[in-house]
Structures are given as C-alpha cells and as structure tokens.
Design a protein that fits this description.
137 residues; rod-shaped; two-stranded antiparallel sheet; mainly alpha; single chain
Length: 137
C-alpha cells in the first residue's frame, strides 16, 4: 500500500481536492455576499419608490383638503347643516380618497359627519390641538 504509485496518487488527490474545496468555499461566500448586496439594493430602491409614492399621495391629500376647506358649502354660514351634509356626502361619493368626512367646530365638537356611527363627539387628537394652537382652525 505504500508504493510510490499510491503516494503519487495521494499527493495528486490532495493537491487537486484541497484547492477545489478552498475555491468552492470562497466562491460560496462571495456569491452569497453578492446576492445579499443585490437584494439589499433592490429593497432600498423599493423603499425609495414607496417613499416617493407616499409623498405624492400625501401632497394630493393635502391639496384635496385645501379644496375641501375652501368649499363654499362648508365655509359660508348661509348654508344649512342639511345642505352641508348633502355636499359632504356628494364629495365622499365622488372622491376615492375620503371614506368619511366629519365637520368639527373650532372648539373640537362634531357638527356633522357623513358617517352615521361616528364614535367621537369631540376631537381630542394631537393634530387637531396643534392646528388650533397654530390658528389654522
């Protein structure tokens, strides 16, 4: 078994297999790292596109709210609550953004809403308080 032929065969196997194993392990780690980096880039791009889409959506919603604020049915005191409610219901039916529109007075109490089962009669949210403090109401 310790012939020269067996020793040469063992040396050739070791000199062939060891570099092959090292090459396999290195390529596995390099390919894994490249795949992870590629996936992280994809996730970053998706997050960036999602953030841009949300920004456009928020600008559109803010624009729609500004239009809603300047609606004569809501601003003009000559209109009755029933006319206001009909106008708000029409806006909800036309709009794809608003599922419910509620109208609060400047103290935060609910004046009218397009939803019949509105749970809050007074708005206690931080956004409403901040708008009152800044004089936007």
């Amino acid at each position: 078994m310790n012939t020269i032929r067996n020793r040469i065969l063992l040396v050739l196997i070791l000199t062939g297999i060891i570099p092959l194993i090292v090459l396999f392990l290195l390529s596995e780690s390099m390919i894994g790292r490249a795949i992870r980096e590629n996936e992280q880039e994809k996730i970053t791009k998706i997050n960036h596109q999602l953030a841009e889409h949300i920004a456009v959506l928020m600008k559109s919603a803010a624009f729609d709210l500004r239009i809603l604020q300047n609606n004569p049915f809501i601003v003009d005191p000559a209109f009755t609550d029933e006319e206001r409610k009909r106008e708000l219901q029409r806006l909800v039916n036309v709009s794809n953004i608003f599922a419910d529109i509620s109208l609060y007075d400047d103290t935060g109490f609910l004046m009218l809403s397009t939803s019949e089962n509105h749970p809050d009669t007074k708005d206690y949210t931080d956004n409403f308080r901040e708008a009152m403090q800044l004089g936007k109401i």
